[in-house]
Amino acid sequence: MIKSIWNLGLLSFIILFYTLWNSLRAIRSLQDWQTIATYGAPASYILISGLTWTALGLWLLWQIGKTWQHTPRAGIILSGLYWMGYWADRLAFQPSPIPNSLFSLFFSSALLLFVILLWKFPETNAFFTKETE
Fold first, then answer.
1. Could you say which of 4, 27, 93, 128 would form a disulfide bridge with 123 (CB–CB 3.0 to 4.6 Å)?
2. What is the rounded distance in angstroms from the CA atom of residue 67 to the CA atom of residue 58?
3. How many CB atoms lie within 10 A of CB 38?
């Protein structure tokens, strides 16, 4: 049980970090709408994607608290979707002026693998399975 609490604590921290990051992204897009538009970035896309990932992160944290049995599956799916969204954003919507794609690919893929492994640990899954008598 101690390992599952540690795993879930780390997963919750990661989810909370990305939830706060995306909420900050949404707030800053509203505050700096004109500046973002000046540089040619789609401010409405930044706002909508930030709000969407904030809502999904809060939902996932809530599901962890409820110990919903499908939380690990939902966590893995959302992690993969976030990774794909990051790369779609990076390649299609907001290309980086200084591409460091190899480092970003390595780091984002390593983080995705780490998060998936945390979700896949037997102790983590045991936390979400309900014992029947």
1. 4
2. 14
3. 10
